């Protein structure tokens, strides 16, 4: 019995230490992402850099890109934001070098998603977009798969959207446009939510308390009545 309690103590201490390590990893991640979000924008990665892009090194980096927005190929992706249910408006940005970047121009409410409603925000000719680099969301959302044939999109799956809209030389990421893209109308940009769940300290304390309880139980078993 004492051996089992001591074994559990070692396990709980190991789990608590692992959670402490995860805590410092998460705090470092939050600090790095916060620095990226508030840094001056840099040019969006071009085709020569696409193979090296990773979520760890690049997601939420502030970037800028210029080109022509192809509004005829807007794709609406279902979304729920602080403004309620609606859609993200994904628009291809055709760059002068032939590359294409999908731009999440922002949010439109469910009852105002028609193109005519957001026509005032359409810019003829060259447009410059500033926003956050985001990684593709392949497959779909929780319990719902994208249905390109029916035009039902539940996640911002870059490769699938590119295939459905017959886009070529498409970047493996998309850009969440910032609030300057609003122009006082729809879609509403700058609604990216950057929030990382951090419960590691709670779990670390829990595991260490269980370790103490195991030690106490072992001591109680060892002591004569």
SSE diagram, text form:
Layout: H1 2-37, E1 42-43, H2 55-58, E2 62-69, E3 75-81, E4 84-94, E5 100-109, E6 126-135, E7 140-141, E8 144-145, H3 158-164, E9 170-177, H4 200-222
Parallel strand pairs: 1-2, 5-9
Antiparallel strand pairs: 2-4, 2-6, 3-4, 4-5, 6-9, 7-8
Helix pairs in contact: 1-4
Give a quick set of tags describing it.
OB fold (Dihydrolipoamide Acetyltransferase, E2P), single chain, 2 domains, 9 strands, 225 residues, alpha+beta, two-stranded antiparallel sheet
Structure described in brief:
The chain is of the alpha+beta class and 225 residues long. The chain has helices at 2-37, 55-58, 158-164, 200-222, and strands spanning 42-43, 62-69, 75-81, 84-94, 100-109, 126-135, 140-141, 144-145, 170-177.
State the CATH topology of the largest domain: OB fold (Dihydrolipoamide Acetyltransferase, E2P)
Whole-number radius of gyration? Answer: 24 Å
Q: Architecture of the largest domain, according to CATH?
A: Beta Barrel
- How much strand content do the residues show? 25-35%
Assign the structural class, choosing from mainly alpha, mainly beta, alpha/beta, alpha+beta, or little secondary structure: alpha+beta
Which spans have pLDDT < 50 for at least 5 consecutive residues?
none
Total beta strands: 9
Count of discrete alpha- or pi-helical segments spanning 4 or more residues: 4
First CA to last CA: what distance?
A: 16 Å
Approximate helicity band: 25-40%
As for the number of domains, it is 2
What general outline do the C-alpha atoms trace? elongated
- State the CATH class of the largest domain: Mainly Beta
Main beta sheet: strand number and arrangement?
Answer: 5 strands, mixed, barrel
Order of helices and strands: HEHEEEEEEEHEH
What is the strand arrangement across the widest sheet?
2-4-5-9-6
């Amino acid at each position: 019995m004492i051996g089992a309690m001591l074994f559990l103590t070692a396990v709980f201490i190991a789990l608590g230490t692992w959670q402490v390590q995860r805590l410092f990893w998460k705090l470092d991640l939050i600090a790095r992402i916060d620095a990226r979000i508030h840094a001056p924008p840099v040019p969006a990665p071009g085709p020569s850099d696409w193979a090296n892009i990773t979520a760890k090194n690049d997601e939420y980096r502030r970037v800028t890109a210029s080109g022509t927005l192809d509004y005829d190929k807007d794709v609406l992706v279902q979304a729920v934001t602080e403004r309620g249910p609606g859609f993200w408006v994904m628009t291809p940005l055709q760059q002068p070098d032939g590359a294409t970047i999908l731009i999440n121009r922002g949010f439109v409410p469910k009852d105002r998603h028609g193109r005519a409603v957001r026509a005032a925000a359409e810019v003829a000719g060259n447009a410059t977009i500033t926003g956050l680099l985001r990684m593709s969301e392949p497959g779909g959302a929780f319990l719902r798969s994208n249905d390109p044939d029916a035009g039902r999109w539940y996640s911002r799956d870059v490769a699938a959207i590119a295939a459905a809209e017959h886009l070529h030389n498409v970047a493996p990421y998309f850009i969440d446009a910032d609030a300057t893209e609003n122009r006082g109308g729809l879609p509403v940009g700058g609604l990216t939510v950057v929030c990382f769940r951090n419960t590691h300290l709670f779990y670390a304390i829990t595991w260490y308390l269980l370790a103490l309880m195991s030690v106490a139980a072992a001591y109680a078993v060892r002591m004569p009545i």
